[in-house]
Amino acid sequence: MSMGMYVALRSQGNDSLIAIPVFTSRVFRLSSFYVNRNSNIKSVEDLRGGKIGYPEWAHTAGIYSRAYLMHEAGISLAEVEWVQSGVNKGGIAEHVELALPPNVRQTPVNDGSLDQMLIDQEIDALMSSAAPKRFIDGNPDIVRLFPNFEDVETAHYQKTGIFPIMHCIAIKREITEQNPWMAKNLFTAFEIAKNRSTARLRDVTISRYPNPWNFAGGERARALFGEDIWPYGIEPNRKTLEPFLQFCLEQGIAHRPMNVEELFALQLQ
Questions:
Q1: Contacts of 130 by beta carbon, 8 Å cutoff, 6+ apart
Q2: Is 122 helix (H, G, I), strand (E, B) or coil?
Q3: Pairing, β 33-36 against β 142-144
Q4: Which residues contact 43 (CB under 8 A, 6 or more apart)?
Q5: Pairing between strand 125-127 and 17-25?
Q6: What percent of the chain has pLDDT over 70?
Q7: Burial level of 211, CB count in 10 A (0-12/13-18/19+)?
Q8: Distance CA 98, CA 8 (A)
Q9: Of 16, 177, 196, 202, which has the most beta carbons under 10 Å away?
């Protein structure tokens, strides 16, 4: 389940789900900023006072991207006009109720896609976890704000210790209450499966995935993150989870302050 949506629901008193600290999707998100190469936007600081398009405010990827603007570039939410629409087609709706700060300026657009608005320079940047279709198709006008995003993301991780978490495993609370052993057993099973997967990633003997340099990527990841390149559990991820809850509160996704422990099953604390 999306971490942003999960935090939003739990902060509003919806306790129908309970998560286990198994994080099946983690992605650094500085690759998600797109700009028009013909515009005056050449660095992240140039976005101050501009218009940024996004598809969904509570989308987890966007939470991390906005947090980078706020905490690394020093650009407050109020210094940007936020334009909401679909990335490749017009119009999109939020899936959860928000508690936006009063100084946030949002402009919904129903009849135009964000990638076309970026090409027409109606917006200054587009934030999207999925690459815009026109970028994938090779439109030369859409480029990444951070062409060297891997280097910038690595430096940000080394500075903050934040390895962004996109999704967690959530279970119906009534099931875990009826079967209190389930959360611990599921966590153990996912941990074993993950360890086997990362071992295969680093195996140079045979092609486990359709990429000839996966093993080299695995070694680079181990050099950066340590032996466990994809940690599960609360404590190994506290440096990511605590700032994320702060980001959610600052951006109006969380409706109240939250702590890490209340997100996860008691059996795993």
A1: 87
A2: coil
A3: antiparallel
A4: 145
A5: unpaired
A6: 100
A7: exposed
A8: 8
A9: 202
Q: What is the mean pLDDT of residues 13-22?
A: 97
Q: How many whole angstroms from its chain centre is CA 125? A: 17
And the tokens for 255? 């409706």
**Residue 254 Cα to chain centre, angstroms:** 15
Residue of 260 and 91 predicted with greater confidence: 260
Q: What is the DSSP string of 39-108?
A: SS--SGGGGTTSEEEES-TT-HHHHHHHHHHHHTS---GGGSEEEE--SSSS----SS-----TT-EEEE
**Which residues neighbour 116 within 8 Å (Cβ) at sequence distance 6 or greater?**
134
What CATH number matches the domain at 30-159, 3.40.190.10, 3.30.1330.60, 3.40.50.2300, 3.20.20.70? 3.40.190.10
Residue 269, pLDDT > 80, answer: no
CA distance 229 to 64: 20
Bridge partners (DSSP) listed for residue 167: 2, 25
- Report the sign of the C-alpha dihedral through residues 200, 203, 205, 208, in that order: positive
Helices (H), the chain: 3-11, 60-71, 114-119, 133-136, 149-160, 173-178, 182-201, 214-225, 238-250
What residues does each domain of the chain span?
Answer: 3-26+165-268, 30-159
- Is the four-CA dihedral 41, 46, 47, 51 of positive or negative sign? negative
Asked whether the beta carbons of 183 and 268 are under 8 A apart, the reply is yes
Structure tokens at 86: 């679909």
Tokens of 219: 């070694």
